[in-house]
Amino acid sequence: MSTFDATAADQNLEFDQGDDEVINITRKDSDGNTIDITGYTFWLTIKASKSDSDADAVVQKTVTSHTDAVNGETKFSLADTDTDSLSGHYFYDIQEKTAGGGINTLMEMPTPFVHMLSYARVMGFATAAVMLSVLINQFIGTLAGSVAVLGVILAAVAAVILHTFNLVLHVFEGSIQSARLQWVEFFEKFLLEELGGVPYRPFREVDVSVVEKSTRS
């Protein structure tokens, strides 16, 4: 039996070939509150390849009757006949159709790319710090050349003040942004179980693993 939290990160499934399997789903919003799924329809599609069309799926299941709709609970039931012909690794997704007719894919396949863009903001702040340093240096160079001795003194003072400000500003900004991304983008996906977190397994595809009968321990 597998339990799937629809607000959590992508999850792998593993079950034995030829066995009955139940995949439980709890539908929650971004705040972790359960959603009333009365009138919702859910689809489970398992494919041999991500590029396969739905028509070529090895398993497709549709659910319209739910375990506890008010509390967002439903399930997919796979019979032994569904899993008996499966062997190896497959790809799956879960979609929902709301009571209002909206269709959502609960599996967040583009999530790694979106998170990458979020972390790229930190790089953007670092680039801004470099450009601000260049502008400060240009200003200091102009100031030092304006008046022989006084200009050099003023330039030295300005360099210390402006570069210190720039350094403090961007160390603070970089730390805050990095900490926020760590908590919002990473911890809630993997480490914070109360938010649906799961153990972190880097560089893994979301897949379904089927253990063949002959290899069971």
The largest pleated sheet is described as: 6 strands, mixed
Supply the helix-strand structural class: alpha+beta
Order of helices and strands: EEEEEEHEEHHE
Q: What is the terminal-to-terminal distance?
A: 18 Å
The CATH architecture category of the largest domain equals Sandwich
Low-confidence stretches: 1-9
**Average of pLDDT:** 76
Shape: elongated
Description:
The protein is of the alpha+beta class. It has helices at residues 80-83, 111-146, 148-190, and strands at residues 2-5, 13-16, 21-26, 41-47, 59-63, 73-78, 88-97, 103-105, 208-211. The strands form two sheets. Strands 2, 4, 5, 7, 8 and 9 form a six-stranded mixed beta sheet that branches.
Tell me briefly what this model is.
Helices cover 38% and strands 23% of the residues. The strands form two sheets. Strands 2, 4, 5, 7, 8 and 9 form a six-stranded mixed beta sheet that branches. Strand 7 and strand 8 form a beta hairpin.
